[in-house]
User: Fold these one by one.
Assistant:
Number 1:
Amino acid sequence: MSILQTPGSDGRFGEFGGRFVPETLVPACQELEHAFSDAWNDPMFRADLDQLLREYAGRPSMVTECHNLGSELGIRLFLKREDLNHTGSHKINNVLGQVLLAKRMGKKRIVAETGAGQHGVASATAAALLGLECKVYMGEVDTERQELNVFRMRLLGAEVEAVTSGSRTLKDAVNEAMRDWVASVETTHYCLGSVMGPHPYPFMVRQFHRVIGDEAFEQMNDVLGTSPDYVVACVGGGSNAMGIFSGFVDTPAQLIGVEPAGGAAVGRGQPGVVHGMKSYLMQDEYGQVSEAHSISAGLDYPGVGPEHSYLASIGRAQYPTVTDDEVIAAFQLMARSEGIIPALECAHAMAWISREAPNMQGKTVLMNLSGRGDKDVGQMMSILGDVI
Amino acid sequence: MSGRLEAAMRSRIDGGGKCLVPYITGGYPGWMDAVRACAANGADAIEIGIPFSDPVMDGPIIQQASQTALDGGATPVSILHDVRSLDVGIPLAVMCYYNTVFHAGHERFAHDLASAGISAAIVPDLPLEEAGDWCAAADAAGIETVMLAAPTAPDERLPRVAERARGFVYSVGLLGVTGERAALALTATTLAARVKKITTKPVLIGVGVSNAQQAVEASRVADGVIMGASVVRRMIDGGADSVGEFIAEVRHALDGATW
Ligand SMILES: Cc1ncc(COP(=O)(O)O)c(C=O)c1O
C-alpha cells in the first residue's frame, strides 16, 4: 500500500488536514470534493487535462543532468525542469486542472492568492484561456518585490488587488481570497495555489501536481535504472514538493523538503489551525500566527500543507532549512555553472544540495527546479547590483 | 438544561422583547468601558472578541480593531484576566478563532473561560464536522457553544447545526464577512425563517445588521440581533459613550416596535 493517502471525507492525513472553514464555505468544499472526485475518475476530463498539459503547458518537462555542478559538488545532479512549463513554473499544472474543474462546475469567476506571483500568473493565464473572470490577491510587500508579475497578470486580463492587512505577504493574501470567497461562493471558485487549505484542496492540488513525480520516476528510471538517492524540493505551501515526492514516496529515495529559515513551518512550528487546515504552523505562545520572513515571496508562509506535516511526523521526509544568504549564493552558482537562472524558491533546494554535498559524495540527487528566475532578476539586481 | 446565555435570551423573549447582543473587540483601548456601556444601555449579553492574527470572517473595521488590540499587547490571557473584573450582570460570550482554542487545548480553554466568568463561546471557523471535541469539552465545563447557521446550508444541515447549538443559534445574515451594509440582506430574514422553523432555540441574526432600523427588520423574523462592526466603529471613533448611545438607540427601537 502506498504511503500516499487518499483522505476520507474528514480530509485527514494522519492527524493533519481537515476542514476548518466558516459554515458558509462547508457546502462549497463538499461540492468541490465531489466534483473533483467525479472529474478525476472521468476519462473525458482526464483527456482534456492531459491535452492542455501537453499542448499548452508543454509537458512532459525534461530532466537535465547538471554535469558542471555535479562534478563540482561530487554528486550526480538532475533537475526536473518545471521552469520550462508555460508561465515559467510548476504552478500551471494545478491551475489548468482547477480551472477546467471550475468550468465543469459552472463557475464564472475564480479568485486566487499569490506570493511570488507565479500562481497568480498561472491563474490569470488559465482564466484567459478558458474564459473565466479572474481576481488575484497579493500582499503589498509582494506586489512591490514582484512588480513584473503584477503587470503580467494585468496584461492577461486579471484584476490584482494589493493586500494591506497583517504582514502584507502570502498569508494575508490567502485571508483576503477566503474573505472574497465567503461572499462570492455561489459563482466563484477559489483557485488555491498550493497543497494547503481545507479538504479537498491539499489532496486535489497534490493529484494535479503528481504528474511531476510520475514523469520523473520514469525519466530517472530510464537514466539510472532505479530511483535517485535523494529527491529535493523547496517548500512554501508544498505543492511542487508534494508533486515530485508523489513519484518517489514508495521508493527508497530520501525525500527532502527545504524550507526558508524564516518560514520553517515544520522545522520550528507546532501543530495549529489556520487557512482551513490543521498542520505545522509558526505561531506564538497564544496561537497567533507568526509572520514569516524570506527573501523569496513564494516561500514567505508560516504554514505548510498537511500532507507534509504527516510525512514529517512519520519520518518519511525531512524538512531542513537554508538561510537567505545561502540562497543568494545558490542562485548565482546555478546561473554561472549551468546557465540556468532558477526561481528564488527552488534556489532554496539548490542551497541545501550545495551545503550538504560533502555528505552525499557519489550519490544521485534529483532536484525539482520549480520555476525560472526571470521574475526575481529585478530583486536580485538590487541585492547584487554592485557586487557582480 | 439551559445555560446562562440561553436563559438570558429566553427571559427577554418570554417578556415579549427582542434580544440585543453587541460585539466588542477585547483588548482595544477602552474596551472594558465599552462593554459596561453596552450592559448599561440594554444589551442582553455581550460578545467579546479575542483578537486573532488571521481573522478570515472579519471585514475591515473589526480587522482594524483586532490589529490595534494585538499591537497593544492584548492576548487571550490578558483579556480573560480583565474579564474577571467586569461585573456587568449579563452573560458574556467570547468570539474567537479556532487556533486560539486549539493552541490552549480544549479542556484548558473551556476551563479558563469558565473561571473567568464567561458563559459561552462562538468559534466562526469551526464548522459542525470539526466541532465535536471542543463542544464536548465546553459542555463539560458549562460553556455554551453558539453554532452558526449559514445561508448556504442545505435543509438537511440546519437541524444538525441547531441541535448542536447552545445559548442560541447564530443565523448568519449574509454571504460575506462582518461589516456595515447599507441595507439588510434579503438572505438574513430568509435564513432566519428557515432556522426558526426547525428549532425551538433562540435564533439571532448577526453579520451585516448595521443600525436600529435593520435590527428591527431582522427581529421581525428572528429573536434578536448581534451587532458587531457598527458597534466597534463607534468604539473606535467615539469611545464608550458613543457605544452606549448607539446601544440605547437600538434598544429603544426594538422595544418600541410592535411584533
Ligand atoms: C517557482 C516556485 N516554486 C515554489 C513555490 C512555492 O510553492 P509550493 O511550495 O506550493 O511549491 C512558488 C510559489 O510561488 C514558486 O513560484
Number 2:
Amino acid sequence: MELLSGADMIARFLKDEGVERIYGYPGGAALHIYDALFRQDSVQHILVRHEQAATHAADGYARASGKPGVVLVTSGPGATNAVTGIATAYMDSIPMVVLCGQVASHLIGEDAFQETDIVGVTRPVVKHSFSIRHPSQIPEVLKKAFYLAATGRPGPVVVDIPKDMTAPTERYEYVYPKKVKIRSYNPVTRGHSGQIKKAVDMMLKARRPVFYTGGGIVTGRASEALTDLVRRLGFPITTTLMGIGGYPQGDRQSLGWLGMHGSFEANMAMHHADLIVAIGARFDDRVTNNTSKFCPTAKIVHVDIDPSSISKTVRADVPIVGAAGSVIDEMISLIQGREASNAESLGEWWKSIEGWRSEREGKLYEPSKPGEALKPQEVIEAVYRATRGEAFVTTDVGQHQMFAAQYYKFAKPNRFITSGGLGTMGFGFPAAMGVKLSYPQDDVVCFTGEGSFQMMMQELSTCKQFDVGVKIVNLNNQSLGMVRQWQDLNYKSRHAHSYMESLPDFTKLIEAYGFTAIKVKTHDELAPALERAFADTNELVFLDIYVDPFEHVYPMQVPLGSMRDMLLSKTERT
Amino acid sequence: MRHIISILLENEPGALSRVVGLFSQRNFNIETLNVAPTEDPSLSRLTVTTVGDDRVIEQITKHLNKLIDVVKLVDLTEGNHIERELMLVKVKALGAARDEVKRTADIFRAQVVDVTPSVYTVQITGDAGKLDAFVQAMAPIGILEVARTGVSGIARGDKLLTL
Ligand SMILES: Cc1ncc(C[n+]2csc(CCOP(=O)(O)OP(=O)(O)O)c2C)c(N)n1
Ligand SMILES: [Mg+2]
C-alpha cells in the first residue's frame, strides 16, 4: 500500500493515466501540486504566459491527437483566465481536463484571497465538474474526469481542488483506478438497427442525396469508415468547418465545406437535395442560415452521439443516436450486396453539381500580379504547396480563418484546428504550440491576423523557453478584416473600430524574442520568404505578410436567406 | 402544454444548480420546482413543471438527461399520474369572516392548522388547479400570505421511477 499526499497523487495519477504533458501557470492555491510536479519527471509541465493560452494549447493537442488536453491553474484569476479556453473547447466538443487550485476548504465562501467559485463560473461551459472534498477521493475523481472528458460527446471537465486537499502532511492510500463507473452516464455507441435500416433504404432510393458531416467524424475517429461509405454510394459530401478532413478534400466527391462561407456547390447541393445524411454535425446557425428556408425538399437522416443535438434546430425525419463509426459500419454492412435503384438519378444529380462547380471555378478571387500587393487567398495556396498539404494548420478567427479553411485542402482529419463554435480570437497561436510540442516532426502552421495575434502574442516567450518551432503566418490586412467586411456590407462602410492604426513592427517584436521574422509586402517576395520559413521544421518563423486590406470572404450567405442565397463577390449574388 | 417532469438526481453538492442553470441557460421555463431526498440517501427527487410545445419539451428532457448528475427522469404528463401540491395560507379571520374561512376550507377539504384571534392558517393539498381555486375563493376574505411547495407527482399504477 502506498501513502501519498493529495498533490503527489495528482502527479502520480497523471503519469499512470499516460499524460505526458500539461499546460499551466502556478499560484498560491496550486503550489502543493507544483511542488509535487517538481519532484517527478514523468509529466512535463509547460509554463505558458497566460492561462488562456494553457487551455488553447491543451485544446490544440487534443484536437490533433484525440486525447484529452490537461491544464493546471491556480484559483481566482488563474481559473477565470482559463474560462475562454474552456468555453472554446466546450463549443467544439474537445476533451480537456482542467485542474484548478482553490482556496482551502475552511475559507470557501468567505471571499478569501483569490477565491472564485470556478465551478459556478464554468457551469454552463463544461461537460461536468467536480470539487474535491477529501484527498482520498482524488484518484477516483480524476479518473472520472478523464473518462467523462474523452467519451461520448467529449468536452471539458473542471476539477476544483481546495489547497488543503493537496497538503503534504496528509497522506492517503493511492491506487490507480483502472476503471470507473458513473451510474448516470452510459453513452450510447450502437445506433438503433431499425432506424439505421430505414436510413439505408432511403439512401438507396434517394435521387439527390448529400452527406453533411461534422466534427463528430473527427472526434469519433470515423473518417475511414465514412470515406468507405461515401465512395460505395457515390454521393457528394460536404463537411462542416469542424468536420474538415473527415473526408479527403481533394476527392471528386468532396464539395468542400458548407455554410456561411462554404463553397457555392456545397450550399447549392444542400438546398436542392432530396436526402441529407447528417453525421456528427449539429445544424448550427452558421450552417443552416434561416432554418425555415433550410433545404425545402430534403428528408433528413441525423446521426449523432448526443440526442440533444438531434432535432434541436432542424427536425430530423430519421433520428439515430449513436457513435458515428459504429453507425457507419452498420450502414456499410447493410448496403453490401444490395442494389441501389438510383444510379440514373444520381448521374443527373452529379451533372447539376458539376455545373455549379464549374460556374464558380477560377472566379473565386483575382490573384495578384508581380509587383502588386498579395491576396490573402493566394498566400494560403502558396503555404499549402510549400507544406505539400501535410501540415497541421491552426487558425485564429476572422477572414484569414475562412480563407485558410477554403484554400488549404485537407486530406486527413485532425489537421485543421480552428475555433469553430466559439470563434475565439487568440486561439491559433497557443493551439499551434500545443500541437507542435506533441508532433515535433511535423510542420505546424498558424494562420493568424494582426488583430488575433495580438491577443495571445505573449506566448512567444513560452516558445522561446520550450523551443517550439511553429510557423506563424500573419495575414496582415491592417484591419479587423471580418469586422470591416460586415461593416462594408451592413453599415455603409462605417468602419467603427475595425482598423488597427497603431500596429507594431511585428518583425522587430519577434526579433526581440530571438526568432526569425520576415516581412513580405509584394507578390514577388512571397516565394523566397516561404522557402526560408519552411527550411527547418523546428525553427519558429514569423511571416508578416501584407495582404490586400479590401478583400472580402466569399461566398457569403445572405442573412435570413436559404442555403442557396449567397453573395458571390462584391458585385454578384445568387 | 404544461408538463410535469420528475427527476432522480444524484444527491451531490451543485447538482441542483446544474438543473436550474440549464433552464435559464437554454431559455426554458420553470413554473414550479420541488426537490427533496428519497428513501435512497444518494438520490434526490426533483419535480419541475414547465410549459412548452413538443419540440421544447423534447429538448428539455434531452438536455436534462445529458446532465451527469441526472440519473433518470420521466415526463409524468405522458401517462396517467397523480399530481399534488401542498399550500399553507394565512387568512384574515375576524368577525363573520372567521366562519366564512372555515366553511370555505371545509368545502375544499382544507384544514385549519393554526389559529390566532385574527388569523387562520389553512393547509390544503391537491393539484395546482384546486389550489388556484382555493386562493381565488379566499381572496375576497383577505389572504395575508401564501406558501406553496410546488408540484410533486408520481405515475399511477405499477409504473415506477427507480434505478
Ligand atoms: C475574442 C474575440 N473578440 C472579438 C471577436 C469578433 N471578431 C471576429 S473576427 C474579428 C477580426 C479579427 O481580425 P484579425 O485577427 O486581424 O483577422 P482578419 O479578419 O483581419 O483576417 C473580430 C474582432 C472574436 N471573434 N473573438
Ligand atoms: Mg486583420
